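Morning run. Coffee first, then this:
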Amino acid sequence: MQYEMEFFYFYLKFISAFCIAFMITFYLVAAFRSFALKFNITDRPDGNLKKHEQPVAYLGGVAVFFGFVISLAILYPNSKEIFLLLPLTFLLFLGLLDDLVSLSPFIKFAGQFLAAIGFVKLGFYLSLDYLPWYLNIGFSIFWYLSVINAINLVDIMDGLATSLCIASLASFFIFSILLYQNALALFLVILIGCAVAFLYYNREPASIYLGDAGSLFLGGCIAAIPLLIDWTIITPLGIFAPLIILCIPLLEISQLVLIRTYKGIPFYKGSRDHFAHYLMYNGWSKIAIIDYVYVLSIFLFFISYWLVFEVVSFQRLTILFLFFLIIWAFFLLKKKP
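And here it is:
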């Protein structure tokens, strides 16, 4: 009976944290949307890459950030994850500045690099015993820059980046529970509550966007959190689990670099070569694309789970992952109509 009560209170804490974060952010997003529309802080259609019918409010990411910070102040204990807010705040303001005045790619990348250095200086980096310190640091900085830009680049359709973030954060949350990292689990469930509240407004047709402020902030969160989880508690191969969980945004940034390089376009320039664009060319609705992302994310979660806990042999997992890549490539290689 005592165990059942402890189990009940354990999960009640997470459910309560999710609901509180959701409600705070839900009302903040509405307030920031009104503010953005009043002062014309909007994303305007250009008929080329931006094909929405009318201007859409920015500042969604700022609302998510403040909802997250307020929820943490109410619910979260004094733990090391709190220090993530320092570089995350820097990323938020870097993205907000880009939303307002459009920074050059060099300045934007330099800012992301400084944020990555900030994460490392605060102790959020790889610490693999079999690698020298400089490789741990180098791989960590490369990881931060890759994931932050991947989340930023995938934000090209109503609800897509937010849905990908929610799916990834949910996977990390489950792993933090399974690996008894309860403080991190609380941190994650608060962030998920904020993201789900924003998704209500960001789903098709979106009435507010994350903006670069939001995508850089969430990208920083999703880059840093895997470095707080002990993936190798059972097998050293568990270190590859975050790569699997984040396979969709990482494939997105990889294919964009390859396609744009092939076309002679600088990789940082916008183009309609995102995976969501290719699916829409072939008749997929935006809702179908979001559902497709969720299904693939669940599939990737199970591959990572089986890897971390050695449920399935590495050879079989390799076959499953190749199956995922075949599904991914099948739809992308179809011709435009």
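The chain has a mean pLDDT of 90. Good start to the day.
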